[in-house]
Write a structure and sequence with these properties.
The structure holds 2 protein chains of 2 kinds. The relative contact order of chain A is 0.13. In chain A, β9 and β10 form a beta hairpin. In chain A, the strands form 3 sheets. In chain A, strands 6-7-8-3-9-10 form a 6-stranded mixed β-sheet, sandwiched between helices. A 4-stranded antiparallel β-sheet of chain A has the order 2-1-4-5. In chain A, strands 12-13-11-14 form a 4-stranded antiparallel β-sheet, covered by helices on one side. Chain A contains 12 helices and 14 strands. Chain A is an alpha/beta fold. Chain B has one domain. Chain B is built from 11 helices and no strands. The longest helix of chain B has 33 residues. The two termini of chain B are 28 Å apart. By secondary structure, chain B is mainly α. Chains A and B meet through α2 and α3 of A and α1 and α5 of B.
């Protein structure tokens, strides 16, 4: 549905987007993940024909963004970071205006307006002025205008920015609900958002694409291994953690055992294994040694860690700078 | 064409949902009304004067009342034009709605012409109020309607040019006040440029006075359509809108 090859955007002094290539299949939701200023918005703006690329090409539904922008625009619904609302219009008027801009008219337009109002749960504010709406409603009206013409592709720039947790959940559910009919690209700098909504993640940093993969693959790829948390306790009250560690390391397939902590005679270990599903072996080994197995839990690496790993210290620097402000 | 109409309607509507249209219409009507009342008073006074002196000067409504009034209207218009155009693009840039327009399947030209036409229509509405004043002349006097109609055509053409310039200036900033002030400055300059012709006849002075929008209105006020003045206004309109479209294009390359 979307094909991007070597897309580049240069400004006078810096390169905002640096030779990015990717493809998005029909019906996919992909998350564009990166710290602020990584080039997410710029890439999206090039896809929506708002910005012309400096080099490279992008096609949406087979149409080139530079050569047939009108055709591309017909097939794209776009929600910029701040929803493009006219404060002096009410919701219905606004959707009518946008619908007409996108080429709808008459009963078809009225039908679509009813549909998107229902879908985005804005029916109760249909006759309210947009300038008077709360942030959550503005965002939903923004989404409604993006899907009014039933576009093949939806491009959402930080759709949950500035919303409260309840609104964030509602918006995410809404986006997930839209997934079947539309191909969706959404950008965010919030990691759990990607984990929860997207099938595929593209991590972008300093204008470069650092990784593209499914959420699961990224997680397993990050260390190429499964990580299991094991808690072992001695029956008689005292147990040397070094003994346990040695025993665990002897199990075939275990690559690394990291001692975490001892708390009231309970020893916590992180066991990293090359192959998956060593949990049975682990449990047997512990029990056979006459210890108690209190906990055995696989821990996936969070996207947060993967993200930091992939983007390097860059992010931590920025996070630190942010924290210091 | 359909897209121009969509933009035009949206733009005109937004003039009328805010107080701006009513304010402009009222102010223009009041100020022009005052000019009319004042000039009419003077006209009547002159008429009585010439009768008392026994001179049978034929008083001419068109020559002595309508023509100066039309010239006045063209100058009053200069002060109102910035207020009509300043928000056209600046506001869209400030609130980010420009992104909606530029990512919709609609050409820049259609947006620009739609907006400009809305501005011209509002100005035409303001002129309509002044026509009420002239209607009284037709009731009590016997003026010639043709020069009046041509005068209005001139007013519209002149405003069209200045509105196109204002539209262009509005694309340059996201601040309405700056757009308004700059447009006002340019309008004022284009008016006073012709003053140099009062004492100087060198080529540069002739060029400056040619650029003065007011100069080209003279023929229309007289009730004559001079093609070279009409062409001047049409050129200004065209250039203004052309620069607007260039500026809108460059918006994308720069932003």
């Amino acid at each position: 549905m979307i094909k991007v090859t070597e897309l580049t955007k240069k400004y006078a002094r810096n390169v905002a987007v640096d030779h990015i290539s990717f493809e998005v299949q029909k019906g996919e939701i992909i998350g564009f993940l990166g710290p602020n200023g990584a080039g997410k918005t710029t890439t999206m703006r090039m896809l929506t024909c708002f910005l012309p690329p400096s080099a490279g090409s992008a096609t949406v539904a087979g149409f080139d963004v530079l050569e047939q922008p009108l055709e591309v625009k017909k097939r794209i619904g776009y929600l910029p970071e701040t929803p493009p609302l006219y404060p002096e219009m009410d919701t219905t008027e606004y959707l009518t205006f946008v619908g007409k801009l996108k080429g709808l008219s008459g009963s078809e337009l009225r039908g679509r307006i009813d549909y998107v109002c229902e879908r985005c749960a804005i029916t109760d504010v249909r006759h309210k002025l947009l300038g008077r709406l709360s942030k959550g409603y503005r965002q939903r009206v923004g989404l409604a205008q993006a899907i009014i013409h039933n576009p093949d592709v939806l491009i959402l720039d930080e759709p949950t920015a500035g919303l409260d947790p309840k609104q964030i959940n509602e918006t995410r559910d809404l986006i997930k609900g839209l997934a079947g009919d539309h191909t969706i690209i959404l950008s965010t700098h919030i990691l759990p958002e990607v984990e929860q909504t997207c099938q595929k993640v593209m991590i972008i940093n300093r204008g470069k694409l650092v990784a593209t993969d499914s959420v699961q693959n990224l997680q397993s790829r990050a260390r190429g291994a499964e990580l299991v948390l094991v808690e072992v306790a001695g029956r008689n009250g005292n147990l040397d953690s070094a003994t346990v560690q040695r025993r665990l390391e002897q199990i075939a397939g275990v690559s690394r055992v990291i001692f975490k902590e001892t708390h009231q005679n309970r020893n916590m270990f992180e066991v990293e294994s090359q192959k998956g599903f060593l949990r049975g072996d682990l449990a047997r080994a512990v029990v056979e040694a006459g210890w108690d197995l209190n906990e055995l839990r696989p821990t996936a690496m969070s996207l947060e860690e993967i993200f930091l790993q992939l983007t390097g210290e860059e992010v931590t620097d920025k996070a630190a700078a942010k924290g210091g402000q | 064409m359909r897209n121009v109409w969509i933009i035009f309607r949206k733009e005109l509507r937004s003039y009328f949902v805010s107080p701006i249209a009513y304010l402009l219409l009222t102010m223009f009507a009041v100020i022009f009304g005052f000019f009319f009342w004042n000039s009419l008073g003077y006209f009547v006074f002159m008429g009585m004067e010439s009768q008392m002196r026994g001179q049978a000067f034929p008083m001419n409504l068109n020559e002595q009342l309508i023509r100066p009034l039309l010239s006045n209207a063209s100058v009053i218009g200069l002060f109102f034009i910035p207020m009509i155009t300043m928000r056209l693009f600046a506001e869209e840039k400030r609130t980010g709605t420009i992104e909606l327009l530029t990512t919709s399947p609609i050409r820049d030209v259609e947006v620009i012409i739609g907006k400009w036409l809305a501005a011209v229509s509002l100005y035409a509405g303001m002129l309509l109020f002044t026509a009420l004043n002239f209607a009284f002349l037709f009731k009590y006097g016997n003026p010639d309607w043709k020069p009046l109609a041509i005068g209005y055509l001139g007013l519209l053409l002149q405003a069209g040019g200045l509105l196109a310039i204002g539209t262009f200036i509005s694309t340059l900033t996201r601040n309405q006040i700056i757009a308004g002030a700059a447009t006002f400055g340019v309008c004022l300059l284009l008016w006073v440029l012709e003053w140099v012709s009062g004492y100087e006849t060198a080529t540069w002075a002739r060029v400056l006075s040619y650029l003065s929008v007011i100069n080209h209105f003279e023929s229309f006020a007289k009730g004559v359509i001079d093609s070279k003045d009409a062409i001047f206004y049409v050129t200004v309109i065209f250039l203004g809108l052309f620069f607007t479209s260039r500026s809108m294009e460059s918006l994308r390359w720069r932003s």
